[in-house]
Amino acid sequence: MIQVENLTKYYGDLAAIKDVSFNVDKGEILAFLGPNGAGKTTTMRILTAYMPPSAGSAQVAGYDVFHDSLEVRRRVGYMPETVPLYPEMTVRSYLDFVARLRGVDDCRKRVEAVMETCHVADYAETAIGKLSKGYRQRVGLAQALVHDPEVLVLDEPTIGLDPKQIIEVRELIRSLGGERTIILSTHILSEASQVCGRVVIINEGQIVAEDTPERLTARLKGGERVYLQVSQPSAELEAALRAIEGITTVEAKGDGGYEVESVLGADRRTEIAAAIVKGGWGLLEMRPVGMSLEEIFLKLTAE
Ligand SMILES: Nc1ncnc2c1ncn2[C@@H]1O[C@H](COP(=O)(O)OP(=O)(O)OP(=O)(O)O)[C@@H](O)[C@H]1O
Ligand SMILES: [Mg+2]
Fold first, then answer.
1. What is the pLDDT of residues 6-40, one digit of tens each?
2. Which of 10, 11, 153 to mutate to test the pocket of ligand 1 (most atoms within 8 A of CB)?
3. Dihedral sign for Cα atoms in the order 213, 58, 170, 189
4. What pLDDT does 77 receive?
5. CB of 40 closer than 6 angstroms to any ligand 1 atom
6. If we measure between CA atoms, which residue out of 60, 62, 38 comes closest to residue 50?
7. Is residue 212 over pLDDT 90?
8. pLDDT tens-digit profile of 124-179?
9. What is the torsion angle, in degrees rounded to the nearest 10, for the CA atoms of residue 252, residue 253, residue 255 and residue 260?
């Protein structure tokens, strides 16, 4: 379980995150989605007690990251953006080393178990430096799991993997949910919707949306972009549409067709229809144009 309240972090004068609040329930997989520089890694470093916040608080597995950082670290598995692996060590000796460092009982058994879980058992005796990037990522995941943590914090776990490995790692993460509470960062929206039950979208250090992937799509689809066709296209019509509050773009598509976009969350179909009827331009058709998750993400993070 993770509870974050008004978390703020300054690097000098720069607020990398500002008043970030969200919760992750026990057993839930949450996606932390945002473009480069949004503040994902900063938030994760605070959640894993590697860095204190400037303001606000975070509870992880029942402990405060600032006041009980040791208890938090014991209960959290962290896969950072770049996992500090030792290239000359074998997979088994590295995981064994990490397990001992974290005071795991029965290290040998635990190491074998996580190597199985993360599908690296076949490479147990291979030097980490000789592994492909995908397998190194798996070792990164294995080290995060070796002390059997309640909470997993995964910073872009599929970055740099080939499509097949991406699918495998996503499946692996999904299979780890239920028992464990997981937060993973990504800038790929489809990844968030495939793996996670809920998505928090962060941009420039602030949360801009939070919902299930389904509701996020449903809520944002339809109202925002409308295709319409009239029998009497004219420049006045375009101007009249632009004058409606909340409408951002009007694009003529030829043959009296127009694509009209309004600000996120604003359904202006009633106003559009009224304006066209009033002007006598002959409304023939009006329908919402669905936006892909990627488009929604770009819109949310552009505003
Ligand atoms: N150690 C640091 N010192 C100064 N500024 C930093 C430091 N780490 C991050 N920043 C700044 O804080 C902001 C948030 O960075 P952060 O690494 O949290 O973003 P991110 O969402 O993880 O991005 P990415 O997708 O590129 O990994 C950025 O503007 C970044 O330049
Ligand atoms: Mg990052």
1. 999 999 999 999 999 999 999 999 999 988 899 99
2. 11
3. positive
4. 96
5. yes
6. 60
7. no
8. 999 999 998 889 999 999 999 999 999 999 999 988 788 888 888 899 899 998 88
9. -60
Q: What is the pLDDT of residues 238-291, one digit of tens each?
A: 999 999 998 988 999 988 999 998 876 778 899 999 999 999 999 999 988 766
Buried b (16+ CB within 10 A) or exposed e, 45-62: bbbbbbeebeebbbbbbe
| C-alpha atoms less than 13 angstroms from C-alpha of 6 in its C-beta half-sphere | 3
pLDDT band at residue 294 using 50, 70 and 90 as cut-offs = low
Ligand 1 touching residue 37 (CB < 6 A): yes
- Calculate how far, in angstroms, residue 201's C-alpha sits from the geometric centre of ligand 2: 14
Nearest of 16, 33, 10, 5 to residue 183 by alpha carbon: 33
Alpha-carbon dihedral 145, 147, 152, 157, rounded to 10 degrees: -30
Domains observed in the chain: 2-216 (3.40.50.300), 221-302 (3.30.70.100)
Q: What is the largest CA-CA distance in the chain?
A: 80
14 bridge partner residues: 11
Angle at alpha carbon of residue 49, lines to 187 and 147, rounded to 5°: 90
